Amino acid sequence: MLLSLSNEPRDYAWGSTSLLADLEGRESTGVAEAEVWFGDHAGDPADVAGGSTLDAVTGGTLPYLLKLLAAADPLSIQVHPTITQARDGWDKERDLAADDPARNYRDANHKPELIVALSDRFEALGGLRPVAGTLRLLDALGASSGVRALRSRLECGSDEDALRDAVGWLLSGDAQREVDEIIAALAGASSDEFDAELEAVRAIAGRYPGDPGVVVALLMNYLVLGRGEAIFLRAGLLHAYISGLGVEIMAASDNVLRGGLTPKHIDVPELLSVLDTTPAQVPVLAPAADAVTDYPIEVPDFALRRVVLEGTPLSMEVSGPAMVLSTGGEVSVTGADGVALAVPVGTAAFAIDETSVLLSGVGEAFIAQPGS
């Protein structure tokens, strides 16, 4: 059985007024459109054609949340908990109201996530750079007292300990003078090795002047994805999307610990308790040369497959409750009953109990399902 899913875009301030409209071939509303949720999460369950919502169909048991994400401005620097951390945090905050701004945990689930670029250029920050690289980047910022103070913290102890100390210090509220000096030094900075990073962080500083998260961004890896490329962000990994359009899938959770570039609540001790400061580059996952790309991740909550259709129908095995999200062209999906369901761009088909689906048309689609 196949159901048609849609949803209204969420109007977060960082959203784009054009990216989703252009994808769907409609006029812009002039309002920021940031995310479209295709899932049964209580925060915004998808609409089912005919008047219901997906949570009424599934009972809220879907293990993943699929989204379209459109960023014109940087999202908050953030990290997500492991499932143990989420359960402990949810229990610790059980007496807080659901809408309490001091609440860190919206549910008791972890939130690993994968994002695939739909735009030709998708910018992100992902993970913490090894300290030696960041010290070379700081060489481009001169020798103000703020730069010297950050350098001295990064040079003490192991990379993991030094990065934890530096992030905590920058976000503590006690380092604003140093933060301001470091941000000021960005204006004239140049580096053959780190020019792209400096340009990106200068742009972030223009959007969030004086925000300590700007300097935290200097500690992070800068990534630029092309269409079809993806990054997987495990629990504990500091990250922020900067700009672009993508398909995002994650465990069914809305747990976010923020670390800057936001007016929302930042709980520094809780952030540090969740943060994994092991420095490493985040691998970029490339699309396959043929029609079907499976992104190699190993989580039980979700799996994602990209399918490029060129007129020849393709039969795809699916397991568990699956979604087919259309992101380009004309796509239809046929289930076991033999009835083809047209899936307009920006909407999805939900397969409740199918073991395979037939995709037809000329376009692009993403198949989401539980992982292995």
From TrEMBL:
Keyword vocabulary terms for this entry: Isomerase, Metal-binding, Zinc
Cofactor(s) recorded in Swiss-Prot or TrEMBL: Zn(2+)
Enzyme class: isomerase
EC number: 5.3.1.8
Catalysed reactions, semicolon-separated: D-mannose 6-phosphate = D-fructose 6-phosphate
InterPro entries per record: Man6P_Isoase-1 (IPR001250), Mannose-6-P_Isomerase (IPR016305), Pmannose_isomerase-type1_CS (IPR018050), PMI_typeI_cat (IPR046457), RmlC-like_jellyroll (IPR014710), RmlC_Cupin_sf (IPR011051)
One Pfam assignment: PMI_typeI_cat
CDD domains: cupin_PMI_type_I_N
GO molecular function, one term: mannose-6-phosphate isomerase activity
Positions of the Phosphomannose isomerase type I catalytic domain: 3-130
The family this protein is said to belong to: Belongs to the mannose-6-phosphate isomerase type 1 family.
Protein name: mannose-6-phosphate isomerase
Recorded name of the encoding gene: manA
